[in-house]
Amino acid sequence: MAAWRQAARNTLVMIKNMLLLAASAVAVALSSCSRPAASASLAEGAITVDSLLGVAETRVGDTLVVRGFVRHTCKKSGRRCFISDSERQSKMRVEAGGQIGSFDPSLIGQEVAVRGVLREKRTSMADVEKALEAIEAKMEGEAEAGDACETTLNTLAAKKAYMELKGRDYYSDFFMDGLDYEVISPANAQ
Questions:
Q1: Could you tell me which residues come within 8 angstroms of residue 58 by beta carbon, excluding any fewer than 6 positions away?
Q2: What's the rounded Cα separation, in Å, for the pair 167 and 115?
Q3: What is the CA radius of gyration of the chain?
Q4: How confident is the model at residue 183 (pLDDT cuts 50, 70, 90)?
Q5: Are 179 and 100 in contact (CB under 8 A)?
Q6: What span, in angstroms and rounded, lies between the C-alpha atoms of 184 and 113?
Q7: pTM for the full model?
Q8: Residues 132-176: tens digit of each pLDDT
Q9: How many independent structural domains does the chain possess?
Q10: Which of 86, 89, 75 is nearest to 110 (CA)?
Q11: Does residue 29 fall inside a structural domain?
Q12: If residue 132 lies in a helix (H) or strand (E), which one and from where to where?
């Protein structure tokens, strides 16, 4: 009977050791999950708006990180913002998506790095000409058509001139479907 007790005792010790080992493994796994992962800043390797627009035609559909200064956020929904290089030479629209719920107006003036998918919207020459005719008719019919019509007219005329210069029947507007972003520098650091 003594051999039986010794075997039972050895089995209990072995079960106890296995339970301790399993509990230790679970504790290690849980503690490693709760530690913040070391992540690289989005700004590392980000390209400027101007650089991106220089190669945009070859990068449509790619996930990229672009950096720029927030110049405007949509007031009603915050679902889009416009970023530009520091000299305001080039600008790009960014649509909220992914982890971006909306763009807060407090971002205006801050430098951000945005990860997103580059998209292209083409406007045909026929659509530009039709819009030009509609704006011109509106301006003739209304004494106070306002600066908005004048600005739109100038933008459409510039698109038409660009298409004619490049010998194309469309104009490409490049924008990003944003996935996430981070603030690189606050507004007062500019």
A1: none
A2: 32
A3: 29
A4: very high
A5: yes
A6: 7
A7: 0.68
A8: 888 888 877 665 555 557 778 888 888 999 999 999 999 999 999
A9: 1
A10: 86
A11: no
A12: helix 125-141
